[in-house]
Fold this protein.
Amino acid sequence: MKMPNMQNMMQQAQQMQKRMQEEIAKIQVEGSAGGGAVTIGMDGQKNVTSVKISQDAAGDAEMLQDLVMAAFNEAHKKVESETKAKMSGMLGGLGLPPGLF
């Protein structure tokens, strides 16, 4: 019985990790709240890339705080979902046990 070449397996794993990081870096999402009164853009590394606030929302500080938080949380969930989908697609062919990633 032939043992798989461990060095080749490690190189393939490193290449796959690099591809995953590149794919995740390409993710761009927007989360919004208050019917679009606040919109937050976020990238795959969960960095906020943009914040848009309508004039109507700018007048009430407490409401604005709630809307910003809700928009951020929505954007964060979208990044998580897209990251999980990309990882699942890339790792699907490896035969790993479900739920490992």
About this structure: The first helix runs from residue 6 to 25. The helical segments are 6-25, 55-58, 61-91. The radius of gyration is 19 Å. The mean pLDDT is 86.
